[in-house]
Each structure stands twice: as C-alpha cells, then as structure tokens.
Fold:
Amino acid sequence: MTPNSQYHKDLPRFVAEEFVEGNFLGLPSKDGEPAIVVLQVPYELTTSYGQGTAQGPAACVAASGQVELFDPIIGEDLPAGYNIYTAPEWSGEGNTLQQQLASISKYLSEWNNGSSFPVILGGEHGILPAVIDSLCDHPALEGDYSKLNIVQIDAHADLREELDGEPFSHACAAARAMDYGLKHLYQVGIRAFSKQEYERIISDDKITTFFASDTLESDTKWQQWLETLNNIEGPIHLTIDIDGLDGSIVPATGTPVPGGLSFWQAVETIQAVFTAPKATVISMDVNEIVPQQDTPLTQFTAAMLATKGIIHHINVRKSQRNRVKNL
Ligand SMILES: [Mn+2]
Structure:
C-alpha cells in the first residue's frame, strides 16, 4: 500500500512537494543524528490467531502519510525543526526465533545511545524482549535494568510462562521482559488472561494492572490509572499493543478484542507517561499492526499513536525537561 498522493496534492501544506514515500509522515530525511528514529520490525513468528503482522510496519508508514503534521501541543507542523528519520527496516535475519530476537536487538541497539528517540513499529508483540534487550547500554540504564519501567497498553497480559511450549511466544512478551529484572510493569486495557497470569498479577508487587473491566467504565478508576502514571519515577519504555484499543478501531490486528481503550484513552495514556514529572520515556513501540484491506483504519490508528509519541517527545525536548544525559 502506498500513501494516497492525490490527497496530499490537494492539501495546502509544505509536504505537497517534499512528500517522501516510504518515510514516516512522508518527511524527508536530513543529515546528522536524528532526534527521532522510526524503526520497522516486520516480525511474525509466533502469532497464534491472525496473520499479517509482518506487513504491518510498512502499512503503518504508508498510512502515516495521511496523519496531520500539526498538533497544538507543540504549536507547529512536524518535523518542527527536528530530524525525524525513517530507518531501513529490520532485515528479517535469523533462522530460529532466538536468532531473530538477537538480530532485532542488534538492529535496535545502535539507536539506543540516548541521542535519538526510537519509535519502533512491529510486527508481533513477541519483539518486546528484544526491545528491552537492546536498551542495555542506554545511558539512562547503564546496564541496570532495575531502573527501567514498562508501561503496556494491551488486551492481553502477555504474562504466560509459555504458549504451546514456546516461552518466547508473543503471549509471553511481558513475562520475558520482566525476566530482565525490571523496576515495574504497568498494564492497562487488560481483558484476556489465564488463571496463571491473573495469579501472577495479584501476587507480583512489581506488576500493576488496571483491568479493562473495572478501569474503562469507571472515571474514578481511570483517573487512578493516570495518577499512577504521573507518579512513575525513572526511565520508561512505552509498549503499545494495538489490540489494547477497542477492536472496533483496530479490527485487522491479529487478535482483536472488544471492550478496549478508546482512541482518546490511549492518547491520554501516552500524554500521562510523557508528562510524568519524575520519569522519562526513553523509547516506545507500537505493534501487532496488520494491514487492513477494506480501509486503512487499523494501520492509520497505529500511525496516529506513534505520531502522538513523537509529538510528546518533541514537546519534552523543546521544554528541556528531559533528564537523560545527552538527550
Ligand atoms: Mn501483547
């Protein structure tokens, strides 16, 4: 799928001449170290139900051509004077799941020097342990994973110890990430989980889960979620499995589930993590994107969420609130 260039030609914005197909938001690459790097990981090895996540990142990049470049949060059009670079996608190297995850970690790690903000588009959620692995030498961690928080939007807890005998299944993504000895995992939108996962959530004091059933229909509980995010301290990796949103707005994702976050609840969550006064979002991913054929709604929703992350990161840079060395 390619962006609808006809639509762009009719828009009175500067990208009409400069739109670059294959780049996120159609923005041209610039020389020098990017402020933001968009990384595509077309990974699909363990998806259990749907298919097509391998084509998701490219579809999301294509759909991003329709996202408005203006956002009142920063008050000007993207790229707002910053270099937003769309890197060549991950090669798909590796014959086994372990080799592929190692290859993904290597692909991502060159961008984790603290100078560029990585926005990773996936691919199935099974990439999460590789994403966490790649953060090892990030200056915000210096190899100490006990500093790192994860904020996860997801329908599934992803805390299984294994699925069909595979401990690195996407259904185990958060459990494998926790194996790194993280500080804390915060989850929202969770509405599909096993008894074993439920028991871990209840018993593990490093996991805070806001279940969809009692969070999304209660304003008090929702405000508690936002307050919880506001109180996080230290570096954060934000992982957005788009199936955390209601299935009606991401119907093509591998396992759409009803009863999820509204688009605006996802946006509020993104805003809350980026504006938490004692925390710094050091990287983010948007995954389980599958190209929708009848309409680009699924991939466009993913592109909108990734863009919100970019907007908020730029807002942080502009206000010099970022506490990470060299960032
Ligand atoms: Mn997931």
